[in-house]
Amino acid sequence: MLNWLFNKKNSDNVSLSRIGVDIHSHIIPGIDDGVETIEQSVAMARKFQELGYTRIVTTPHVMWDCYKNTPEIINAGLEDVRQAVKAAGLNVQIDAAAEYFIDEHFTTLLENGEEFMTLPGKRLLVELPYSTPLLNVSETLFLILQKGYQPVLAHPERYTYFYSDPSIYKKFCDQGCELQVNILSLGSYYNENVHKMAEYLLKNGLITFLGTDAHRMQHLEMIRKFQGNKWLEKYPFQNEKLINI
């Protein structure tokens, strides 16, 4: 089974050309829990291109207890990746934003008007703790909007404490937040509960963007399993509108 999955010809890959832009990945080496070497960065960029992407906006973690990344650190790593991808003869465009963990450091940056690494359209990709709910999520999203940014909540399907009342996500959307689902949540890669929550959000039309959240080649290889996935074929993800922003 694994040989069948990982050794299929490129022509058998699922095509994500309709999506066009990936807005969530970790392919700058050595600055978070993503790739470790520039060679891995290039290999993943090549795989993105094979899958049909034309643009990658990679999003290193900014999580002050673990990954003290700044725009200077991220941009330096981005330039290294761009040069390596160009030298490899690839045509995929590489840009960078960041995935900001909502913690005290993030709130301080926001209140002080500091510079953020954003997705196209001044979109600010944020994530929450996986197991412990924050008390002020709505207030923080409102503050992001007040500061002139469009909040995008990463992988809402993975926050288990909202499973008992998923209607909170409609409240976030009504407040002005966009939601980004992970492509691997469209199957059972994480677990069945994550898959069910992803389906709930999609069925209710609450998802705006699709992201790979790719940290390593294995994640991109697993996407081959999604050939014929109904959500990839029919759901109106809005990634493509970010291609030229």
TrEMBL record:
Q: Which residues cross the membrane?
A: none
E.C. no:
3.1.3.48
Q: Name one GO molecular function term.
A: protein tyrosine phosphatase activity
Under catalytic activity, the entry for this protein gives:
O-phospho-L-tyrosyl-[protein] + H2O = L-tyrosyl-[protein] + phosphate
Q: Which UniProt keywords apply?
A: Hydrolase
Source superkingdom: Bacteria
Q: Which InterPro entries match?
A: Caps_polysacc_synth_CpsB/CapC (IPR016667), Pol/histidinol_Pase-like (IPR016195)
Q: Which family does it belong to?
A: Belongs to the metallo-dependent hydrolases superfamily. CpsB/CapC family.
Q: What is this protein called?
A: protein-tyrosine-phosphatase
Read off the lineage from the record.
Bacteria, Pseudomonadati, Bacteroidota, Cytophagia, Cytophagales
